[in-house]
Design goal:
The chain is α/β, with parallel strands linked by helices. It contains eight helices and eleven strands. It has a six-stranded antiparallel sheet with strand order 6-11-7-8-9-10. A five-stranded parallel sheet has the order 2-1-3-4-5, with helices on both faces. Helix 3 links the parallel strand 3 and strand 4. The radius of gyration is 21 Å and the shape is elongated.
């Protein structure tokens, strides 16, 4: 029997043979069996009868890339649950585009093959094992991370909601440490200091508004034991912005009264 038969199998679709070879070697170092292909349409014929643990597909293929493959996979119950990871050369906007297309994750091909392989392993472990109770995790353990100075927290929350993601969003900005859990894109549970639920979400958003040195890290597949957030993300974001405006107006009024 082939020794690789018991290893998790990754279907890697990329027309860059050099990149594909390097990533294949790195994935094998992480314990995966890898089936490379240069054409997505051909690779799809193998998926239904021999589903891989995950599919990694380039976004820039001539006939069909990751964005075009996503709706095809999601439309078939036999392939709908297969993780699809897009590979491209973009930043936060490319990640958002990947989520909107129906991909489970996005990796930058400019990263080292070893870093990409470790990231993919962490993503699949997160889906399998669920929540790891760690306040802030290393980048290799996260499916999405970044600086709040580049993409503000409401934008991150909306992005995860639009992509119907399930997982835990860890936020650290100044004196604020918080966590927000998502279930299918909906806010499910939140903690910030002694606050829980709706109040925690509002406090986290207010504390992070305009942050220049905050960071966020999203752990795919993490779940919470019970629901504490009862209102929609839109309502809570609007409340947070309204409270911030009221606090600013109160501060201005206070200064004007002191100076008069």
């Amino acid at each position: 029997m082939n020794a690789s038969a018991n290893l998790p199998r990754i279907l890697l679709i990329d027309s860059n043979v050099y990149f594909s070879k390097r990533l294949t070697d790195a994935l094998k170092q992480q314990g995966f069996d890898v089936v490379p292909s240069t054409q997505a349409a051909y690779a799809l014929t193998m998926v239904e009868w021999n589903a891989p643990a995950a599919i990694i597909c380039a976004t820039n293929l001539r006939e069909m890339g990751a964005y075009e493959m996503a709706p095809i996979l999601r439309a078939d119950p036999k392939t709908a649950s297969i993780p699809l990871i897009a590979v491209g050369s973009g930043g936060d906007q490319a990640l958002l585009e990947s989520y909107r297309a129906g991909c489970d994750d996005y990796v930058d091909r400019r990263s080292s093959p070893a870093a990409i392989a470790a990231h993919i392993r962490s993503l699949l472990l997160s889906r399998q094992d669920g929540f790891q109770p760690t306040q802030m995790l290393s980048t290799s353990d996260t499916a999405l991370s970044g600086s709040l100075s580049h993409l503000d927290l409401p934008g991150v929350i909306q992005m995860l909601g639009q992509a119907h993601q399930t997982g835990a969003l860890h936020i650290n900005a100044a004196d604020t440490d918080g966590i927000i859990f998502f279930e299918g894109g909906e806010l499910f549970h939140a903690e910030c200091g002694t606050l829980f639920g709706d109040e925690a979400v509002t406090q986290i958003v207010k504390a992070c508004q305009g942050a220049t040195n905050g960071v966020y890290k999203f752990i795919y597949g993490a779940t919470a034991a019970q629901r504490t957030v009862l209102r929609s993300a839109t309502d809570l974001l609007l409340d947070a912005m309204r409270e911030l405006d009221e606090e600013r107006e109160a501060a201005v009024d206070s200064v004007q009264k002191e100076s008069s």
